[in-house]
Design brief:
Elements: E1 6-17, E2 20-31, E3 35-39, H1 46-53, E4 61-67, E5 73-74, E6 79-82, H2 96-101, H3 115-125, H4 141-153, E7 159-163, H5 171-184, E8 189-193, H6 200-203, E9 206-211, E10 213-216
Parallel strand pairs: 3-8, 3-9, 6-7, 7-8
Antiparallel strand pairs: 1-2, 1-4, 4-5, 9-10
Length: about 230
């Protein structure tokens, strides 16, 4: 691991909910340009790990640090986030176009000269050009998932965090997601949680298994990242 290239570092993270320990003694560094695939059993702490990494929740103990390209600590990063669909209130009165354009709110959208054109291009990318004015409550599960993906990618983030991005998608658009990830990977740090690892594992540079703790898979096809002799981070 090149310490000068680390963009996110989790140090000694512990987290629990309702008296149950969810994550214990998590230490993880993500390098700029990584493609990290994360899997593990239901309830193993995958989504909790992502929300801590994103600083959406504070761990019970431990630290989350962000770093600029020069290695200096920073308080925020340009991150696009696709949460699990079941965390979204589909009854909220907002359209597909409005959800996607919300990805341009904040400082990272200010550099987009033509926001309208960016929204239309993103609608095309996620296959929802004819659905822009539809309320999200009228969408199928797969259409809502694509809407949320559009929001995550519209600002062209440096880091893309995806929690079960393939959920509810039909096979045609699932293949489109693989193609999109392949397009983004050369310029984007990708952190992706999925139960479907058949295709993702071939694309990822690292494969982490989260089940209360964290273990790095050192199968031969994950040659990019050097594991220690125990196969641990």
């Amino acid at each position: 691991m090149d310490s000068d290239n680390v963009v996110i570092r989790l140090s000694d993270i512990n987290m629990g909910w309702g008296g149950r320990k969810v994550l214990s003694d998590i230490n993880l560094s993500v390098e700029r340009g990584d493609f990290v695939a994360i899997t593990g059993p239901n309830g193993g702490g995958k989504s909790t790990l992502l929300t801590i990494m994103l600083k959406l929740v504070r761990p019970q103990s431990g630290d989350v640090s962000y770093f600029a390209p020069d290695g200096s600590p920073v308080s925020r990063l340009h991150i696009g986030y696709l949460p699990q669909k079941n965390k979204i209130d589909s009854h909220f009165p907002i359209t597909v176009r409005e959800v996607i354009s919300s990805g341009l709110l904040g400082p990272y959208g200010s550099g987009v000269a033509d926001k309208g054109a960016a929204v239309e291009k993103t609608l095309e990318t996620v296959g929802l050009t004819s659905h822009g004015d539809m309320a999200i409550g009228t969408l199928s599960g797969g259409q809502l998932q694509r809407t949320l993906l559009g929001r995550a990618i519209i600002s062209k983030p440096d880091i893309l965090v995806l929690d079960e991005p393939l959920s509810y998608l039909d096979k045609h658009f699932e293949q489109r997601v693989y193609e999109l990830l392949a397009e983004l990977a050369p310029t984007t740090t990708i952190i992706l949680v999925s139960h479907e690892m058949t295709a993702i594992a071939k694309m990822a540079k690292r494969h982490l298994i989260v089940d209360g703790g964290i273990h790095e898979c050192c199968a031969r096809h994950h040659f990019y990242h050097a594991c220690d002799e125990d196969g641990l981070l």
